[in-house]
Design a protein that fits this description.
By secondary structure, the protein is an alpha+beta fold. The chain has one domain (2-122): Aminopeptidase (3-Layer(aba) Sandwich). Helix content is 24%, strand content 46%. The chain has helices at 52-66, 81-89, 117-122, and strands spanning 2-9, 12-21, 24-26, 29-31, 35-43, 71-77, 93-100, 103-111. GO terms for molecular function: acyltransferase activity, transferring groups other than amino-acyl groups. This is N-acetyltransferase domain-containing protein. InterPro entries: Acyl_CoA_acyltransferase, GNAT_dom. Residues 1-114 form the N-acetyltransferase domain.
């Protein structure tokens, strides 16, 4: 139901993120059977500003698409400009502002099979 993905840079742990498979509730949002949520992503401080987050998100979307999931969702706090920028660069599209936990968050989605420009650069 849930798995962890990690990114290494020159043999060192650079970042990680979790994927939870639907069906489930994500805040007040219903995630379907063939959909998933990417969450709890982190980039190790010394690896920030190197594209680790965007690479991680793009790779997770690719993996979920290969596993025949139709959509991947992700949320980020509305004030976290760095995360929001990375989410957009990874090809996610904005859905709505909503409450996820204690903060107002921005909810995004990515359709399976729709290639990310970022992944094409890294392939």
């Amino acid at each position: 139901k849930e798995f962890l993905a990690v990114v290494y840079d020159e043999g060192k742990l650079a970042g990680w993120g979790w994927v939870r498979k639907g069906p489930l509730r994500y805040g007040n949002f219903c995630v379907g059977q063939k959909e998933c949520v990417i969450h709890k992503c982190r980039t190790v401080r010394c690896h920030r500003r190197r594209g680790v987050y965007v690479t991680l998100l793009s790779k997770l979307v690719q993996i979920m698409s290969e596993r025949e999931f139709t959509k991947a969702y992700i949320g980020a706090k509305s004030f976290n400009k760095v995360s929001l920028s990375g989410i957009k660069k990874a090809g996610f599209e904005f859905i709505e502002d909503c409450e996820l936990g204690y903060f107002l968050s921005r909810l995004w989605y990515h359709m399976a099979g729709r290639g990310s420009k970022v992944m094409q650069e890294f392939d």
